[in-house]
Design brief:
elongated, 0% strand, single chain, mainly alpha
């Protein structure tokens, strides 16, 4: 008899705990936390895709005589800094590390944009089918980065609202759910705009124009 009552009491307590956790947003925290991790993972995948493209782009550009070495060097160095930061899922729980990672990616975006602008002055590169293919791949990757980042921003916004709202903020405190970092307005403007890819007739190189 006592054993049966104990089992019934245990079952009742478990049911009450389940209803309580569900009512205070625990299950929603689980869902949103997983959504944030998944969307961040996609951001990292697209950043890695871009990093993997850069060596091929650099090697192709190196074949162009008299190409501006400083522009090329900045891309190489920016890629090295961006890939030197360990991009783990835990990064989204460390605002300082998150900001450093995004600053490095922003620097790489800027270096790539300058490289593509400089390429416009070199007809041989623009006529190189291999380089054109790489540019198209880069543009597609930048667009994927933008989509992935926007998805991450939305999932983080939904999650952070739960963390800050009453009564779910109490659940957040009890179970250690903290506000996660997202992209700043300045950061978004600098990074999310894909580099322009144009196949219009190039302007004459400065050296040739001066002759």
């Amino acid at each position: 008899m006592i054993g049966a009552l104990t089992r019934q009491l245990t079952a009742a307590l478990l049911l009450a705990a389940t209803l309580l956790l569900g009512g205070c947003g625990y299950n929603d925290f689980q869902r949103l936390d997983e959504s944030v991790k998944a969307s961040w993972g996609e951001v990292l995948n697209q950043y890695q895709r871009r990093a993997d493209l850069i060596p091929n782009i650099v090697n192709t550009v190196k074949g162009e005589a008299n190409f501006e070495q400083e522009t090329l060097t900045k891309v190489i160095e920016a890629r090295a800094r961006a890939t030197s930061i360990q991009a783990t899922p835990e990064l989204i729980n460390n605002p300082e590390a998150f900001n450093k990672f995004q600053a490095a990616q922003g620097e790489l975006s800027g270096a790539l944009s300058r490289l593509l602008v400089t390429v416009e002055q070199y007809p041989n590169l623009k006529a190189n089918q291999g380089f054109q293919d790489l540019r198209v791949q880069l543009e597609g990757t930048e667009n994927r980065i933008t989509v992935a980042r926007n998805r991450y921003i939305q999932t983080v916004a939904d999650y952070n609202v739960m963390v800050r709202s009453v009564p779910t903020n109490f659940t957040a405190m009890v179970f250690g759910y903290r506000v996660k970092p997202s992209f700043t307005v300045q950061n978004e403007a600098a990074i999310s705009t894909p580099p322009a890819v144009s196949f219009d007739k190039p302007a004459a190189p400065a050296a040739a124009a001066s002759k």
